[in-house]
Amino acid sequence: MKNGITMVNQSKLENRIIPYKMLNQAVSTTYELVEKILPEDGMPALRLGLKYINTIMTDFIKKAGEGLPIIGYHFAFPADYLYGFDCVPVCIEAVSYFISALLPDGSEPYYDLITNWGHPFHTCTSQKGTMGMTLDDLFKFDAIITPTAPCDNTYASYPFFRYHKNIPLITPDLPFLKEEKSYIYYGEQLRLSLEELGKVIGQEINYNKMKKHIELENESNKTQLEIFELKKAIPCPVENMFNAISAAATTFMSGREEKLEFYRDMLQIAKLRYNNKAHHGTEEKIRSIWPYMIIFFDLSLGEWLDRELGMSILFDIFNYNFSDPINTKSDLDTLFYGMAKKGMELPMIKQSTEFFYPFIDDCVRLAKEFSADCFIFTSHLGCKQFGSVPQILREALRDEVGIPMLIIDVDVGDKRMTSEKIFKDKITMFAQTLL
Ligand code: SF4
């Protein structure tokens, strides 16, 4: 009987993160399919990614079952910073888009739920999905932490958690200027926020544990950078699918051993292909850079581009931003300074919290360094702060590199705005103008 009661309790505690249980099921099933259907060397990024994501999901569910607090976080607040606590970190944005990628109707029912509740339809689906799930009590957060960045959606959407669901919301203030005084200020904000979070969940920060996870993340970034450098080769030795899985790793697996393993495995494969001048698909005909996001409602798009059009996606926004490793060997001020600097240079945070000139400069430089034939810009419905940038970028690429850019209006997490078919048709027509 005692055992029965324990199991009921465990299941009740696990049910504080029902969407993770749904995802775990979807990840396991997809992994099983990939293992059974694909040849042994087929789509390694997907195979390896699912394997490691599955391990992490299972661990999170187990920890939720043990009663650890559930901490929601914006991807602008890397999960490795949270590992000074015993907790289950849940990335608000990654959940919506993971479900969008892996379940047949994606997060659409939850977008509709929160829209019908009264939240504006045009806000970011990466947040709307998890908001809908929380409205439906599928998530029971103990606290949520988000910097005041990178966009209006974040400022306008996260208060829902505090004011409607009464979840403690902690908001470190992220400054816009990228300079010394900002890093010191934001470092202090991070420290105060973590202390506040500790009070909410009744725990002290274990700095040794946190440093261990930050060191793992330093190592992951180094390995990811090596993969990035290999992509300069023609043909690109890394398949398109890597970008989607790496985006998931960036937002969801920070500071975990599994993330480092994923990049190490992929680096080995990329080196082998590089040495043999091999391409994952048939033949590389077009080298494209996606300076913003890829789409998440159709996981197969990358593979289709590789195989049907011979188009490589060299990288998307989650795969070209790198920062200095965080110094964990000195005092706490140095640690928080490094965490702040890195936090302000994360993908999308860097681009959306400063003027657009550095973004344009980076794109022009990357186009040349990686021998790109074209750019494809997904103008995401949520990212209104970036709405005017694509046209300026298109002109810069035309004038300074002599390459074209396709702009597609889309909601990267909701196929009902621009369907997979329309998306593919647009790219196919664009590709014909390049060949
Ligand atoms: S910057 Fe764009 S994609 Fe990122 S959270 Fe904001 S609206 Fe969503």
Give the CA-CA distance, first to last residue.
70 Å
CATH architecture of the largest domain: 3-Layer(aba) Sandwich
What integer is the average pLDDT? 95
The run of helices and strands is HHHEEHHHEHHEHHHHEHEHHHEHEH
Indicate the structural class: alpha/beta
Number of helices: 18
Radius of gyration: 21 Å
* Widest sheet, order of strands: 2-1-3-4
Please indicate the count of domains. Answer: 2
CATH topology of the largest domain: Rossmann fold
Question: What would you call the shape?
Answer: globular
Beta-strand residue fraction: 5-15%
Q: Report helical residue fraction.
A: 55-70%
- Small molecules in complex: iron/sulfur cluster
Which stretches of 5+ consecutive residues score pLDDT under 50?
none
Explain what you see:
The chain has 435 residues and is α/β, with parallel strands linked by helices. It folds into 2 domains: 2-203, 3-Layer(aba) Sandwich (Rossmann fold); 208-322 and 355-434, no CATH class. It is built from 18 helices and 8 strands. It has a 4-stranded parallel sheet with strand order 2-1-3-4. The longest helix is centred in the middle third of the chain and has 24 residues, at 207-230. The radius of gyration is 21 Å and the shape is globular. The termini are far apart. The model has no long low-confidence stretch (mean pLDDT 95). Iron/sulfur cluster binds next to α7. Iron/sulfur cluster (SF4) binds at residues 93, 124, 126, 150-151, 153-154, 348, 352, 380, 382-383.
